[in-house]
Amino acid sequence: MIKKFTSGNPIDTQAVVEKFNALPIAEFPLGGKFENGNFVFEFDMADSDIVYGLGEAPRGINKRGWVYNSFCSDDPFHTETKSSLYAAHNFLMLSGSKTFGIFIDFPSKIRWDIGYTTANKTVITIDGTDFDIYYIDGTKPLEIVKEFRKSIGTSYVPPFWAFGYQQSRWSYHNAEAVDAVVDGYNKAGIPLDCVYLDIDYMERYKDFTVDDEKFPNFKDYVSKKREEGIHLIPIIDAGVKKENGYDIYEEGRKNGYFCKNEDGTDFEGGVWPGIVGFPDFLRPDVRKWFGSKYKILTDMGIDGFWNDMNEPAIFYSVKGLNKALDKAASLKGQNLDLSKFFELKDTFAGLSNSPEDYSSIYHTVDGKQVCHDQVHNIYGANMTKAAGEYFAEKFGKEKILMFSRASYVGAHRSSGIWFGDNHSWWSHILLDLKMLPSANMCGFLYCGADLGGFNENATRDLVLRFLALGVFTPLMRNHAALGTRNQECYSFENSDDFKDIVEVRYRLIPYLYRTFKKASEENDMIFRPLSFDYPDDKIARECETQLMLGDECMICPVYEQNVGGRYVYLPENMTFVKLSGTSITTEKMSKGTHYIEVALNEVPLFIKDGRQIELCKPAMRTSQLDTTDTVMIP
Amino acid sequence: MIKKFTSGNPIDTQAVVEKFNALPIAEFPLGGKFENGNFVFEFDMADSDIVYGLGEAPRGINKRGWVYNSFCSDDPFHTETKSSLYAAHNFLMLSGSKTFGIFIDFPSKIRWDIGYTTANKTVITIDGTDFDIYYIDGTKPLEIVKEFRKSIGTSYVPPFWAFGYQQSRWSYHNAEAVDAVVDGYNKAGIPLDCVYLDIDYMERYKDFTVDDEKFPNFKDYVSKKREEGIHLIPIIDAGVKKENGYDIYEEGRKNGYFCKNEDGTDFEGGVWPGIVGFPDFLRPDVRKWFGSKYKILTDMGIDGFWNDMNEPAIFYSVKGLNKALDKAASLKGQNLDLSKFFELKDTFAGLSNSPEDYSSIYHTVDGKQVCHDQVHNIYGANMTKAAGEYFAEKFGKEKILMFSRASYVGAHRSSGIWFGDNHSWWSHILLDLKMLPSANMCGFLYCGADLGGFNENATRDLVLRFLALGVFTPLMRNHAALGTRNQECYSFENSDDFKDIVEVRYRLIPYLYRTFKKASEENDMIFRPLSFDYPDDKIARECETQLMLGDECMICPVYEQNVGGRYVYLPENMTFVKLSGTSITTEKMSKGTHYIEVALNEVPLFIKDGRQIELCKPAMRTSQLDTTDTVMIP
Fold it and tell me: What does the mean pLDDT of chain B come to?
């Protein structure tokens, strides 16, 4: 049962689609008080209580013992001490001595101190007085999740082919580079469905342009790749390059579509294209305008996109940079003491995504000027909505692949997400795993991390182990940054090991797709913490290295280097299945603690006693899969 | 059996004290070739081979699957993809299909590609042609370690009281702050032996000065604290502040003791004090001069030091900063494109510890001008040697506590090390654990990480779990950075849990001290990978979350948040001991995989069947311990 409590005049984020009567905030069951322009409330936790939620966020499935901020952040260093990633997913759930969920519908900052200051207390601070809070009663976590999910509407379902394996890099910068990727996979006999186009496919990083020199006759090229069964997925950035003669920029400027400075002039920030205007995606007319531009690429046969830099990421503002240069000039010839030196260094380091810049950007919401600070967390979601509204109208459902970096609850109805610019760190295998159920709670079903890790150099074994988790994530994409080691499967020695892993994905697609569709239709989760299924099992309750998958399975990736296996806990008797290429081994295992051996070319999976899942034969493309020709295992 | 192979005319690093005949490098058993001014050699590895070594370095006990650089680095972000920390410990050992050790005695860069480029190949590149390589034959890893350790001389043993619990912070900046720490521990009833003085105790960060306003009558204050059983441990930095009238700087300048620019003028770098001169520690006369300055503090009753910033860390050079300011000035008023913007940002970000600066510093070695690049890795070790030589002459052995941030093999004879500026990350509990055996291999016995983590904010549970590993590390020091949350044991709720953990340390001191002394006398390790003891046990061989301790024990800290226990693997039957305050529980456990429950106030420990260890009663100070009144457990 959901109750809605309202304070002031909240901005309509369109996160919730179900209608509820608004009750006064004074009746909010957890109490709370207004102080210094904030609303603060708290609840106590027993030692063994678990706190779930926050979707795409740092740290564990159990969010206890840290402080988080809802603030969409372009920060690629996903270390343990970060408080935000790219999303703001304001759903939280306590489970244990008491069980309830809350969703705070508020597009600006929220601080979640979940046992950080005081171990057994959660203190939540909403940075404003205009908000809705939804309180969800229930006895079981999954029940609460389903109730919440029902209220926010049905989750996005991508096209079937988006369950194939996908290869990305910043950047396959021209047709030859893309061809080499497809050839590399074909020659290695490794399945592949998509190749990504990062920022360099564009003409000087201009949205909805294609550089003719790099991709001559792009429409023909897209069509040729499609004949080979390959979908090209271009990136779209939030900022529109300021360039005379660039029609989209000129339209935007002429019509006043860009975000403003306080004085009404266009705000100018530096991103990949240099100076850009940021479309004011909070305005329906701007969304309609920007969304319609995707047609330029869909007309060329493109049927998938990833929206990026939409927190929005701002490398610098013209104002900020000039200030920094002035500071440097003023210090010239002085004998700098240490504090002045650090001040100068920090000035340059702090130019990107600076709070000062965000505070100086203005939107128009319902005809009123609103400071960006107050709506920061729905900027990216509205960019995605712009695209989603166009695709729904033009193509209907399940036709266009779309996922975004920044997001807010509500965007789950029109897109998936990826977990942003992670690193080639072993610890990021588990970070990926831990975000899957949390993202599912908030409606994001089509998601996954950059497999192999985006930043810095990967090793062969890391990519294999990362892929062996990615086999189960709806978005299975290998992606790496400029300047890092090549990490396409064929780039490493003995690519047969990679073939063995990726083929397992294709064999699982009938099962994964069915499980995905069911989760979307029934507002269910694909991935659940073990504690959801075994709430009275102490070891299962604390487990953050395994997940339940669908109604049948438990997954447990290997996440350490230089090991031939891992510990696993079985909360009940299960069958241990090892999948590798077309081979299968099965072994009955009893409830309890085990050490399992898993080679680099094997995918471990546990199936509950009495359950089975279907496997088809692998194919080089999803379009070649015969999903009706399946065998049941075990 | 050790053989020494020499190429060219190596600089005498004094790492090795045993005399060996120098054989020509052409006879080096692993071959190798000279190319482009480097010497490169390689060896193959079987799939199950383990590569040990490199002392203080990132990643695992098994170094396979990454590329490391020997280059003492002031870099506080100890993520998985770093290639160096603060030390250069050039010992490596293969164990498996072949078993041998090598020590490369070379004070400049070495690149160790250990299965990074090619999974089953190690490629080592020495950045020069003047070096010694020691090749150590043997059949067992521990045998090889002992042989190597014998060749490099007996490891440093600190005073007995240095095994007590130690509290540090950047900074307890005056006597009141130090008093508050001692009071806090006394009131909480938590044992304590040392309080650290970070840079703010000095007068404007000048080495060997004490700020009279912060610490009036310092000598009396030191003596008063000693009466309370507390040792004050001041920091000493490598750079000497350039200040007129500061006697140490003026002596150094007058006598030409500082490192030079190529033109013979003093090299000037910015560190904490602002502009400093860097003593040329490679010169015996400079070491004698600098070492004798410690007398200023020992005369005031100080009997322990930590040497810092001796990689050396250089925030900026005067030359570098001026160049950056010129660049900023030249860009003013221009419409910066993105590449120019990043170039500018990187220029400021790259001012610290810049390769360009290191290349422009000159030392005098045996009367000859030598570029810093060629001797970088022995700079910090020679700073420590300066102190060690003075202490040995003045006080004899085991009287003065001394440990350093930068180090090279050889420094282990006169000091310990700490593992530098780590983070309050759960993953850094395991990083600490993994470095312990590696550091032991290279002679560093007195060592440990900053417990609770230095950078960023710690949580109560993290500090408790970190301390529960620190209970076993010879250096047991809690240390935190400026601006972070207080992490003294009494700063958190329910300090009794902390008392329970720290008391366990004091109960273990007789055992730990005996084990330490034995390891020093017998060139043995205190901590060993499980694989050393159980080479044929596949699970034990791969285990990097447990360590063997002495002849009797196995340790296995809890290293994850929000869990009440962990998996543990017993390679043989053992007794599971839980220690907490004065309580003990024991349980016989059989060989195999177990899940053990460990509360936040408990220290888990396993004792081999048929072995026992001694425990004394806890006390508030090591000086109050009755080490003769012990009980044997189990």
Answer: 97
